[in-house]
Amino acid sequence: MVCIAAFIILALIGVFVAIVSIFKPAVGKAYWKMFKKAWGCLWKKVRLQKCETGFKDDVKNTILSRVIVKHPKLVKPLSAIIEILSIIIVIVAVWALLTAVKSLLALWALGSCNVTKPSACSLGAEMCSIDQNEPKNIFEATGRWFEEWGEIFEAIPDKFRNYNADEFNFNYITVNTELPDNTPIALDILDPGCSVCMTSYRNQKEADFFDNYNVRLVPFPIQDADGSFKFASSELIVRYMFAAEQLKSGMALEILDRIFTWKDEEMRSYQDLFNNYYSKEEAGDVLDGWLIDSGFNKDGLEKLHEIVDYPEITDKINENRYIVENELRVRGIPTMVYEGKKHTGLWKVDK
Predict the structure, then answer these.
(1) Tens of pLDDT along 284-302?
(2) For 169, 224, 252, 300, which has the most beta carbons within 10 A of its beta carbon?
(3) Contact criterion met (CB below 8 Å) for 346 and 126
(4) Is the same domain home to 140 and 202?
(5) Does residue 307 carry a pLDDT above 50?
(6) Quick one: 204 and 252 in the same domain?
């Protein structure tokens, strides 16, 4: 293990030695001589051959040379400590390498280098992440580490899969009912409280996406691992959208459009107000006001309130969640499915 640990350390300091050797060539020559020995030893280990003991002794003697003269009794315990530290260095290096490979695979397969908490990965796509429970102890962390490998390997075939937007049995809302029958279908999964979803929606309107595709809108309130919702009013809004659409076609999109594009008298975004300022009662009152503006009378509102609380609405939300998390294996939204591909993250207008 000493020679492997030495190779790892020498490889890490190689850049610094290269800079120093510009001014002190002797340092570079000594380093290169030691590095070649370490590589030769490592290569033998890879081929399951016995490593050259002389190199191991050279490393130990270099480290212990000063101790031998002044404290000879400490040589044996220090030699054992060097062996233990070598094992630790190798384990840490292997773990770091595996973690780096896992992160890169997760970024490619799932769109985020962090499987459990996608929002913690700054390299992923702009999205509102669907997070899982963080491990509470080392045993859960170890189990979760292996589970993440499983999720990554399950998701890899999806990168080569041809998606058919019509194959997923979502509870959805049709955005434009006046399009020809041969218009290509697109799934659009979004959370009314997600700021990235809001930007994507605005971009889609600007690019006439809703006129070029038969968009099936899937309202999806992101639920955290503890059962709470990521955005305060999202579940209520989604319930209103399904209920309102059941009573009057086009109302769900009108609600969403107001949340994503309208502002109040103080020029505050309604999405921000729903997320951070309105209580559940206040959010319901605002939604009721919008429905009255759109022609709902007292009886209509009472009927809508009944539908909002129906277990069928809960079932629709849960069914959509199962498809999103288990069939599509989505780790963040907005997520779209169209033209045979799955697209996660901010939808941008082609310039």
Answers:
(1) 999 999 999 999 999 999 9
(2) 252
(3) yes
(4) no
(5) yes
(6) yes
